[in-house]
Structure formats: C-alpha cells, structure tokens
Amino acid sequence: EPEVTQTPSHQVTQMGQEVILRCVPISNHLYFYWYRQILGQKVEFLVSFYNNEISEKSEIFDDQFSVERPDGSNFTLKIRSTKLEDSAMYFCASSGVKGPGYGYTFGSGTRLTVV
Amino acid sequence: KNEVEQSPQNLTAQEGEFITINCSYSVGISALHWLQQHPGGGIVSLFMLSSGKKKHGRLIATINIQEKHSSLHITASHPRDSAVYICAVARGSRLTFGEGTQLTVNP
After folding, report:
1. What is the pLDDT of residues A12-57, one digit of tens each?
2. Subunit contact B97:A43, Cβ cutoff 8 A
3. Mind listing the pLDDT tens digit for each residue in B23-42?
4. Beta pairing class for B10-14 and B101-106
5. Chain A touched by B34 (CB under 8 Å)
6. Which of B44, B88, B93 shows the shortest C-beta gap to A55?
C-alpha cells in the first residue's frame, strides 16, 4: 500500500535554529498538507499546497513557516527560527486524484523538540 | 465552542462489546473523516463520509448531514482496537479535528 514518508522521525533543535522537516507524499497525489499536534492536544491544520502554491493556511502558519516542493517528490516544511512552543508532532499528509478529501494519507510524523 | 465535538472522551470496554463513538459538528462540511491514532502517534484514515453509511470489517460509520452528526461503531471489540479515534471535518482543503476518544478494550 502506498505510504507518505516523513524524515526524520525525531529531531531535537536549539531555540532559534532553523529546521526543515521532509516528506515524500504518495506519487500520484495532488494535494499536500502539514498538520501539527502539540502533546496532549488535538491535531491542528497548518497549510495545504496544490499546484505548486499554498492553497490555504491557518493563523498558526505565520512568517516563521514556509513550505516548498523542491522537486517532483519531496514536500518540506521549514521553521525559520524555532521557539519552545513549536515543540510538537508534525504530520505530513497527501490526498487526491479526485479532490482534496479523497484518499487522505498521513505520514507517521516527525517529533520536533525545541530546547 | 469547538467546531467538532466528540463523545465520550474516554471509553473502556470489555472484549466483545459493541462500541459507539459520536461526533457532532457545527459548520458546513464537504466530508467527514474518521481516523485512528495509536500510541506511537501515527494516524490512519478509517473512513471518509459525505452521506449515508460505510462498513469495513468490524467498523461501521454513519453520518446524518441534516443533524450534523456522525457515529463510529465497532462490533465485537478486541484489545487491538485500543487507540484514539478521531473525527475530522473537511472544509475547503483543510481538516478540522475533534479532541479524540481514547478507547481501551480489556480482554
């Protein structure tokens, strides 16, 4: 069964450092997403990406965050200057040949710890 | 008020019991998803519904669009069903998640 692959599975970084979280979505999917889950809280939407541009973003996704699809397979989330409150599990997802809701598949997540 | 409310928050059952988890939402949606999250954190999609009912093995999901309500049922529950079950609604290109229901099935 096709998978969404995320690397690394766990990253520890110093406050103020830049981090890049990487994802390889399912190859024929057209919509790509980042979500995050702070420990003990519900999953929150960050951003959706379609046709090489951001289609929607939440109020969490401020200027510190950016996304990129640098080639035909990778999808990255960059946090420019990490804060303690950025510590969370970050999930990449992809969906859709038929539309954004179809075939939603999540990666196994990257646990980001900011110290 | 949360856009997506789930009940109960926690549920403990004995193996073999029939389980129901409920989800209510307050906004217009294009679809509703039921997801499962295991202790390691990974999220697995169980169902996507826009109307009616779907069944997969021992899992059944229903949705009533007029009442803005969905239910997830597990028949003949098993300890391996222990996980967090999450309802999420699709609006535009985003999913809005509920808080989840922690299910524990004891042998």
Report:
1. 999 999 999 999 999 888 899 999 999 999 999 999 999 899 999 9
2. yes
3. 999 989 989 999 999 988 89
4. parallel
5. no
6. B93
Mapped onto helix, strand or coil, the DSSP state of residue A93 is: strand
Q: According to the model, what pLDDT value does residue A100 have?
A: 62
Whole-angstrom Cα Rg for chain B: 13
Q: Which of B87, B94, B96, B102 to substitute to test the interface with A, most A CBs within 10 Å? A: B94
Strand order in the sheet with B19-25: B4-7, B19-25, B69-74, B59-64, B52-56
- For residue A109, is it left (φ>0), alpha (ψ between -120 and 50) or beta? left
How many CA within 13 A on the CB side of residue A41? 14
DSSP calls for B59-106: EEEEEETTTTEEEEEESS--GGG-EEEEEEEEETTEEEE---EEEEEE
